[in-house]
From TrEMBL:
This is Adenylate kinase. It comes from Algimonas porphyrae. NCBIfam families: PRK00279.1-3, PRK14527.1, PRK14531.1, PRK14532.1. It is an enzyme of class 2 (transferase). Its main location: cytoplasm. It catalyses: AMP + ATP = 2 ADP. Residues 37-66 are annotated as: NMP.
């Protein structure tokens, strides 16, 4: 069983269609990490019929947003239920700075921390072209260019404040998300290699570039 110090806890940032899910699955398979998806956890909680699940069900049935407090409680529950995990990948959380602060606090109370925040950096125009081509081929109503543009805009708005938050902690690493699947995976593995070696993963001057200084 790995100790707390040996666990590897990651956040993957990437917009829709960037391949974040593919990379997360590979990390789960190759490193024994547990992927904690906010949506999956909420659905599982409701299906479990637990007291917390009943609270979630009532909130969702009303059409209300589940509070950060409940999402953190679900995350803590999954961490405690997977003591043998080699670490965790946080998917869909955090989305705001208060959520990031709450996650840090929850991990700190367990002698854990986020080791690296890996951002799949992509070209929005190229992603849009990819979606247009896929829509022309498959015609999926939930994957049309108009709705994708809204989702992409929301993602960029939500994650923008989180970049300086994690950059200030020197935990932000960027990989070229426009590379091939194997190419992105190789870049991610290089980040993990540096994390395990205790080497910096954030390029020098990144924080200054983030603010145009």
């Amino acid at each position: 069983m790995p100790t707390h110090d040996e666990k590897l806890n990651l956040i993957l940032f990437g917009p829709p269609a960037a391949g974040k899910g593919t990379q997360a699955k590979k990390l789960v398979a190759d490193h024994g990490l547990v992927q904690l998806s906010t949506g999956d956890m909420l659905r599982a909680a409701v299906a479990s019929g637990s007291d917390l699940g009943e609270r979630v069900k009532l909130i969702m049935d009303r059409g209300d947003l589940v509070s950060d407090e409940i999402v953190i409680a679900l995350i803590e529950e999954q961490i405690d239920n997977n003591p043998d995990a080699a670490g965790f990948i946080f998917d869909g959380f955090p989305r705001t700075v208060p959520q990031a602060e709450a996650l840090d606090a929850a991990l700190t109370s367990r002698d854990m921390a986020i080791d690296s925040v890996i951002r799949l950096k992509v070209d929005d125009d190229a992603l849009m072209d990819r979606i247009k081509a896929r829509f022309a081929e498959q015609g999926r109503k939930d994957d049309n260019p108009e709705s994708f543009a809204i989702r992409l805009g929301n993602y960029n708005k939500q994650t923008a404040p989180l970049l300086p938050f994690y950059a200030a902690q020197s935990k932000l690493a960027e990989v070229n998300g426009m590379d091939t699947i194997d190419g992105v995976s190789a870049q991610v593995e290089e980040v993990l290699k540096r994390v395990r070696a205790g080497e910096p993963t954030q390029k020098k001057g990144f924080f200054a570039r983030l603010f145009g200084r």
